[in-house]
Amino acid sequence: MKTILLKTPLKLALAAAIASLGLDYARAEPGAAIDASGLYQQYCASCHGAQRLGGMGPALLPESLERLRKPEALKVISQGRAATQMQGFAERLQEAEIKALAAYIYQPVTPAPQWSDADISASRRFDVSSSTWPARPQWRADPMNLFVVVEGGDHHVSLVDGDKFEPIHRFASRFALHGGPKFSPDGRYVYFGSRDGWISKYDLWNLKLVAEVRAGLNMRNVAVSADGRWVMAANYLPHTAVLFDADLNLVKRFDAKSLDGQQSSRVSAVYDAAPRHSFVVALKDVAELWEISYDEGAAPIHDGLVHDYRMGEALAKPGYLNPRRTPLEEALDDFFFDDSYRHVLGAARPRGDGEAMLGQVVNLDVRRKIATLPIAGMPHLGSGISFNWQGRRVMASPNLKDGRISVVDMKDWSAVREIATPGPGFFMRSHARSRYAWADSMMSAGAKDTLSIIDKQTLEVVAQVREPGKTLAHVEFTKDGRHVLASLWEMDGALIVYDAANFKEVKRVPMSKPVGKYNVWNKISRDEGTSH
Ligand code: DHE
């Protein structure tokens, strides 16, 4: 940790000094061709890395910039980014130079950047004193009712007391965390994954960073095993899933390749399948679902049931910490486990406009698709929840494309109901002790300000809460299910606390674009109303 932290201010100071001395060797004379690469090395490399792989600032690779529109990139280069070290260059660079720089960072790096096992290991930082830190919270509040809030606005994390709704602590995170943070089984440690590939292990009881490692250059998410021994990362770049021990030492790299080795794939996501003692890994470009067992004593865990009809015996020896492949008709992007964790309900994102979605139910024991999921549009299954309805076990999923919540019977996979909401949304949540589920419509310009509250018994929308003109999204319940915390998803945003029974606002805690919030107890107990 320390070496990087010490070097960064020096680098910044050096960059500022060079710029203030006016050593503009890369600047263009009027009419001359602009040397964008030279400009990059002069002005950007000190923070974003000579190879654009990131440093104190984020990586500037086409893969990392997929979500940043070019006009926005121009604005950031010109005016800087509020609440970060990114300064604006409008005073020092001509407009054409800024445009050239913006175009440059969207070009692929050649040769293609590599991230080897040696790079992973070299990136690791570990606080050796962490083994001596006290094994109890160094603050007064219920550690099980703690909320970890990811603030995307200025890339911070806040820890909030879930009884008093008061912040306990706030600290800087890596740039652009994505996916839910994952907890150790006792709720002491939390692991964050950033889009730039960093995994950070944080001690919630001592309010200190324990370890960090860069698992890849463009990462999707991380999962932590139910026994707390393993951490796995899913990468788009390079095409790998990477296994670490609990202190983020590299254990094994899995190249995401088809069985014949001919096709390589981005890894969409990795999830922990707790009762199976395995990680389940979704590949984006190869129609296979992987299950990697971490059950040392019982490997191979489901042998005997498993004989792949297409590929024969080669797949029937899964073993410990090795992928066991389920061939699919269509690759999966994100998915949901049923209560038994035997079934994965998955969907792919459409590859082009108007392309139909193929939702699938995959049985992990017999290792094949067993049903088509009766959900159209673009279900966001990773945000699904399950509950009992009229003696049946059902799951409900929001939809990224249509204003509806799809409810599906988890025994016969039939469609139960489509619940209309004012617009497509990203997230939904409930709690085992609450009668209601809450869903946002944040993908809709007209209804992004509305949360719809669904009665789980009648499957009707019974109420709405609104923040007119603002984005209101992503809710999480308190441990006891009595309060709901929602995100006012704005730079000068807030956590809004509602009474879960009468939907009245109880409190508002200012936050900088609180992207997501995670209750320790709901997560470690895998409450049926929250994401796993
Ligand atoms: Fe996410 C979780 C995929 C865009 C915020 N998102 C996930 C997960 C997947 C996923 C597979 C589950 C991983 C986990 O929790 O471990 N997300 C995708 C996409 O494919 C998509 C549509 C495109 C992309 O660029 O990656 C996408 N996601 C977004 C956003 O634009 C969001 C709204 C803002 C952001 O910060 O990126 C966003 N995703 C989130 C959040 C979670 C998440 C807050 C955790 C949800 C939870 O409550 O558990």
TrEMBL record:
Alphabetical list of Gene3D superfamilies matching this protein: C-terminal (heme d1) domain of cytochrome cd1-nitrite reductase (2.140.10.20), Cytochrome c-like domain (1.10.760.10)
Domain Cytochrome c: 26-109
Keywords: Heme, Iron, Metal-binding, Signal
PROSITE patterns from the UniProt entry: CYTC
Protein origin, superkingdom: Bacteria
Entry-linked InterPro entries: Cyt_c-like_dom, Cyt_c-like_dom_sf, Cyt_cd1_C_sf, Haem_d1_sf, Host-pathogen_enzymatic-act
Range of residues in the leader sequence: 1-28
One Pfam family named in its UniProt record: Cytochrome_CBB3
Matches recorded under CDD domains: 8prop_heme-binding_NirN (cd20777)
PANTHER family registered for this protein in UniProt: DIHYDRO-HEME D1 DEHYDROGENASE, PROTEIN NIRF
Protein name: Cytochrome D1 domain-containing protein
